[in-house]
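All the exercises in this workshop are built on plain-text protein records. An example says more than a description, so a record of this kind follows:
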Amino acid sequence: MNVLVTGGAGFIGSHVVRKLQKEKINVTVVDNLSTGKIENLPAGTSFVQMDINDVQLEKVFSKGNFDAIVHLAGQITVSTSMKDPSFDCMQNVLGTVHLLEIARKHGVKRIVFSSTAAVYGDVQEEYLPVVESQCLKPMSFYGLSKITAEKYLQLYKESFGLDYVVLRFSNVYGERQVDSGEGGVISIFANCISSDKGITIYGDGNQTRDFIYAGDIANGIYKSLLTKNVNRIYNLSTESEISLNGLIYIFEKITGKNINKEYASPRAGDIYKSILANGRACYQLSWKPEVSLEDGLKVTYEYFCNIHKHMGS
């Protein structure tokens, strides 16, 4: 199988590329390196530095003979979407449409699309954990742009027969994540703690998230390339929640440090409680999350410790 991974030099993409290569899938990566890094990729990976909106993207398809696409490229933070909705739309909506147009012209059979829990908005506690059929009420332009891209995928299937699998991720963490953005709160904390700096919590710290390790996401994407249960939407999550205060407690447990905390005003567009049901993915994709939060935090913390060690800080 020949697979194009957009955004493959990024955090999640680098985990996906490793998983697919381990499974003997031929991978080509397209990434503009705006947040990704070439060193995130294993040596020898086929790589093209390019934005998905670039008119030259079609040449990549002409050479690649791709069976499927894993579409991870895009604008990934709530805060950026609120500051610059036009940029968010250009990357997440127009970039996706450009990719879909080229894909259908070149006979691509399937696209696996990375969506987000942000499409659901701030769901009332009685409806948690959130199932895929939940009413969509995004609180940010990021969530809105992902919903719009999902709708394009559905209509491309109806109009042109291009199969899709939409994966709505909960909060993903792990090695090689940049320490910025609300989804990267674990990496932000791990980076600060490993360099003995204090951490800032936006809000009261009781807001909850459903954190999932990037390796589990990569496995879910691999399963999505193989499944017969296509043209569906799946949550990829642990179906468990923890508050940011609880997260800090685990960090203190695994590091033996007393962490200096500072609380600040909540940020616009942030959701208070988030937990996604994962039963559909577990059943229809034969997938399940395998890495516990404590084990994942240890790996992530050690990754940042090694970075600071090599930097001499």
Q: What stands out?
A: DSSP finds ten helices and 13 strands in the chain.
